Sequence to fold (373 residues):
Amino acid sequence: MADNKVEFINIKVSEIAPNPEQPRKFFSEEAQDELTNSIKENGLLQPVVVRPVEGVKVPYMLIAGERRWRSCQAAGLEVIPAKVVEGATEEEAYVLSIAENVNRADMTIMEEAGAYADLKAAGWTPAKIAKQFGKTETHITWRLGLLTLRPEVAEMVDQGQIKNNLAWHIAQLNPANQMVAAMRYVRGDFDSEAEAQHFANGLKMMEQQTSLTNEKAPTAEEQEKQKKAKAKAKDELGKAEEVLIPLLEELAEKKPEDLAVILGDDLARHLRVVGRLYAKVQMVRNLLSKAQGIQRAMAEEFNKAAVEVQQEAAAAKKTEAAAKFEAKAADESQSTGKKAAAKPGPKPAARTAAGTKAPARRTPAKKTEAAAK
Fold:
């Protein structure tokens, strides 16, 4: 890019087209209105950066300054100052565009990650990207890691509902668990971002091991060890709560000048002791927070497994009911067929064919006697 010719000229706003590969996709309407009002009042103070293009409707394409260009249009400016970079390739123009936006507060973290991903797809290594934009390689790697976030969670990150570090931990999870961790954090289930990170790490542990339902139940010996360890921890923490906390509370109520007199020569030793104690407390607190995250993840996994079992049971019950209904319908159909077969048919009609003897007619008794006389 050092060999490219650069000049500053005034260009018509209508002769400039936006870059379709612009890394920034989101523009705040409120910020845009503020910039438009500023340009109306003071004019465009920082030139846009463009490059000449051929074979399109307009002679110049933006490299950097799309917000300024939009606001100039909205402010009614016809001609604006521009820095023209001749001979810049598509890749060089894209790098300039990223450099223009990457350190701006209004560029979202997902837009930044997408821009780095485009450069990586073009063959850039994270180390080269980091050097180009004055970032650390870890920063680039973490941003690229966010691209595995499902769209709903990525939107939460862009809107500032989920902070950058937590977003990376969530991005390590499968899509279903990403939604679980994100929704629980957004609705305020955790006291701090660190707690949410520990929960996400706990979910990751659950993904990397077999289901809890497949784990072997602890033996009687293991159960006894767990019981003793729990009792010991409870007893020792109880002693610390009874002795140490009241002592610290008592010291916290005193003024520094009083403690200087009361502790005397022992003040430096007490300061070292409290410093060591503070370091240990911080370490243990972090461990307990991680343990809580794992515990919550285990509960989430157990609840999920319980729901699956209930769904399977309901499906099996439904299948069984359908099978019984079909069997009953088949029995009823078969019974109806048997009844139809057992019913006698109609009686045969009287025979009137020739050769069949007709019954004799009876003659009345009075007519018989008259004939005899």
In short: The beta strands are 5-12, 16-17, 48-52, 60-64, 79-86. The two ends are 157 Å apart (CA to CA).
